[in-house]
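Predict structure. Chain length: 33.
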Amino acid sequence: NIAPKRLISLLCDSYLTLANLSYSIKVVEWEWV
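Prediction complete.
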């Protein structure tokens, strides 16, 4: 049964992408100050 594992990895990927995005935005904000 691969579906749950794939779903979890997909969620993790999207979460990590969001985290990276928000982190990058914070860094940009700090550099613009």
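Summary: Residues 1-33 form one domain.
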